[in-house]
Amino acid sequence: MSMVPFLASLVMAGAGCAAFAAIAFTLQAQLPAVRRLLAEQRALAADREFLVQITATGTQAASRVAVRSRRAPVRLVRPVPAPTAAARRWRAAA
Q: Structure pTM?
């Protein structure tokens, strides 16, 4: 029997173990950076909630903080003023 297939399988298994070890060392080295990123994300979320609270008026602050749990654009709708007498005349003429 030849030893070449056995040696080839040992080399492949060794390469797999080396790759696994490299991944583990990389993850371990980057763990502090990932923790810092997660802490920064939590701080930014807290800042965003604080800014919503101080810029909103009255009961709107509590409802916005409670309802907005995801990032989505906020559209504020102003009430349309009632048409004046001049505007009614212009519409009637058209």
A: 0.40
